[in-house]
Design a protein that fits this description.
Number of strands: 6
Strand order of the largest sheet: 1-2
Distance between the termini: 31 Å
Radius of gyration: 22 Å
């Protein structure tokens, strides 16, 4: 039971190359329990391990890796004879593809959101929304979250939620030809600290 909770709560650490010693120390468990948990994770998610190896091989072959949007990161030490430098470059290769692609998705979602909000007033009288409703404004981006301000009424909140799901999920799935659906959690409140999921 414990080993599954450990692995499901922290798979990025494994993807970025955390060793059994590091996992054991972080979770205050024995090295053998940590290694068993790691083995269980990779046995359950077999494609993850092969993807990691493919990414390292591609980096060695090309000298760089690509994010989902095609941005390149060159890795000077990927072919190094120094094991430490090469291992660091391999971790950077995997990290770049994962976190760089997440950044690509976030930027694309924000662009789509901005474009889709331009048509906010079209059909304004539909669904109980006032024609005087003020178009929501993007205020802040924090990692994988976007904070928007809008009139605090149910019609505007529901409309913004629909636009956000389209922009951040459906549009990005289509633009990047994703096979796995994206999910979005929307929260709302009168202040950042008082937001509740809707």
């Amino acid at each position: 039971m414990f080993k599954h909770r450990v692995m499901l709560n922290n798979p990025p650490a494994l993807l970025y190359g955390m060793s059994a010693n590091q996992v054991a120390k972080k979770l205050s468990i024995s090295k053998s329990a940590a290694q068993q948990s790691m083995n269980d994770f990779f046995r359950r998610f077999r494609r993850v391990k092969s993807w990691m190896e493919e990414t390292k091989q591609m980096a060695r072959r090309n000298g760089y890796v690509l994010t989902i949007a095609g941005r390149r990161r060159y890795l000077n030490d990927i072919r190094s004879e120094d094991n430490g430098k090469r291992s660091q470059a391999e971790r950077q290769a995997i990290n770049t593809v994962i976190q760089g692609s997440a950044a690509d998705l976030m930027k694309t979602a924000m662009i789509q959101l901005s474009e889709n909000l331009q048509s906010w007033h079209e059909g304004a009288a539909i669904g109980g929304q006032s024609a005087m409703s003020i178009r929501p404004q993007m205020v802040l981006q924090i990692h994988d979250e976007v904070l928007l301000e809008l009139s605090f009424n149910e019609g505007d909140i529901k409309k913004l939620q629909a636009i956000a799901v389209k922009s951040c999920c459906r549009d990005c799935e289509e633009l990047f030809n994703l096979k796995v659906p994206l999910h979005l959690k929307c929260s709302c409140g009168l202040s950042f600290g008082s937001m509740k999921e809707i």
